């Protein structure tokens, strides 16, 4: 009888560990961190518990002016939005948002059941958006910045006559 009780307790413990891994994966589990409930812990995540200087200091490579800069996009001209998808950063959701929800004079046309959408300029048969949801994987599955800077102009310009190609 005691073996059955011990076996049941071990099985219950293992079940609890497995459930915990599904509910709270990783090492940053807020359910297990008691100090997360204290207001001091939430104040500055970069402050060490023993008040030593932080090893990581958050720093941005953009000035406030860069972050607040407004860019006018001319959908009727030659302007082109190139979406660089960085893996594991929400890029699929954001890319889908670009083709489905962006408010422009002529938004993308998306058909049910199709992954690619048509993003043409008003009155033209050329695209204003270069992303996997509009042009497919033209530059490879997860093209980085270097691949895109080499690939995008050649792909976009190949669809135009030489005299109609914009200077970039």
TrEMBL record:
Chief subcellular location: membrane
Catalytic activity as recorded in UniProt: alpha-D-glucosaminyl-[heparan sulfate](n) + 3'-phosphoadenylyl sulfate = 6-sulfo-alpha-D-glucosaminyl-[heparan sulfate](n) + adenosine 3',5'-bisphosphate + H(+)
Signal peptide bounds: 1-21
Membrane topology: Single-pass type II membrane protein
Coiled coil location: none
Gene Ontology terms, MF aspect: heparan sulfate 6-sulfotransferase activity
The protein's Enzyme Commission number: 2.8.2.-
Keywords: Glycoprotein, Membrane, Signal, Signal-anchor, Transferase, Transmembrane, Transmembrane helix
Chain's role: 6-O-sulfation enzyme which catalyzes the transfer of sulfate from 3'-phosphoadenosine 5'-phosphosulfate (PAPS) to position 6 of the N-sulfoglucosamine residue (GlcNS) of heparan sulfate.
Family: Belongs to the sulfotransferase 6 family.
Protein name: Heparan-sulfate 6-O-sulfotransferase
Source lineage: Eukaryota, Metazoa, Chordata, Craniata, Vertebrata
């Amino acid at each position: 009888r005691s073996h059955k009780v011990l076996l049941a307790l071990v099985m219950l413990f293992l079940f609890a560990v497995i459930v915990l891994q599904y509910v709270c994966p990783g090492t940053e589990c807020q359910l297990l961190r008691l100090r997360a409930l204290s207001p001091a812990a939430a104040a500055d995540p970069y402050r060490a518990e023993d008040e030593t200087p932080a090893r990581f200091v958050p720093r941005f490579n953009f000035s406030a002016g860069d972050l607040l800069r407004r860019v006018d996009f001319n959908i009727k001209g030659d302007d082109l939005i190139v979406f660089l998808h960085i893996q594991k950063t929400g890029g699929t959701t954001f890319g889908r948002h670009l083709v489905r929800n962006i408010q422009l004079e002529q938004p993308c046309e998306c058909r049910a059941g199709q992954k690619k959408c048509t993003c043409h300029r008003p009155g033209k048969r050329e695209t204003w958006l270069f992303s996997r949801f509009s042009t497919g994987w033209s530059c490879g599955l997860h093209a980085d910045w270097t691949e895109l800077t080499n690939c995008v102009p050649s792909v976009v310009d190949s669809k135009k006559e030489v005299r109609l190609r914009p200077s970039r």
